[in-house]
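request received
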Amino acid sequence: NAGVTQTPKFRILKIGQSMTLQCTQDMNHNYMYWYRQDPGMGLKLIYYSVGAGITDKGEVPNGYNVSRSTTEDFPLRLELAAPSQTSVYFCASSYSMAAGADTQYFGPGTRLTVL
Amino acid sequence: AQSVTQPDIHITVSEGASLELRCNYSYGATPYLFWYVQSPGQGLQLLLKYFSGDTLVQGIKGFEAEFKRSQSSFNLRKPSVHWSDAAEYFCAVGVEGRSNFGNEKLTFGTGTRLTIIP
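response:
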């Protein structure tokens, strides 16, 4: 199993540009998450999904959109990039959340810089 | 809402010395507690977790953690650190899920960076 994969690893965007961060998992997990990690701030949840077709906002959803058309894929969309979105983005997945946050498996991250 | 505090931003220890990383949580009921490790340039990997039962939890790589309800703490320990333990460590708290998935998520602390001196 490849686990959770993310592409790209690095990206530099200009203000106002858009892009999609890709995330794929091959563990047949129902739950998927997007986090951003800023220095000294820990991880903040952007969006999560409990299954194909079902998504919900996390703590910091503004400026982002997600979709979940398949169990495997959970792309994160930035429509109008802003410098405040410079961060490292992590995708994660878990089998369930019913027990109160099951073990989450993380991808390697995407480092995004907006200039 | 739940919260997690990791009071130590950066800790430096000598190789072979013992280690304790502190974690305090705030939550009204018994939480689900996790420790994750992040090596440089990598994603997070689960070290151990506590859901219920024995309050001393064993994890991978020789780590253990003890849940102390009276102190709202879940400190991570290792008796003898190795140079490969240099990384950032995150404590996280989860809450029991509800049927309308209103509050099922992990809340992470801000992390403790561990440096190992040869």
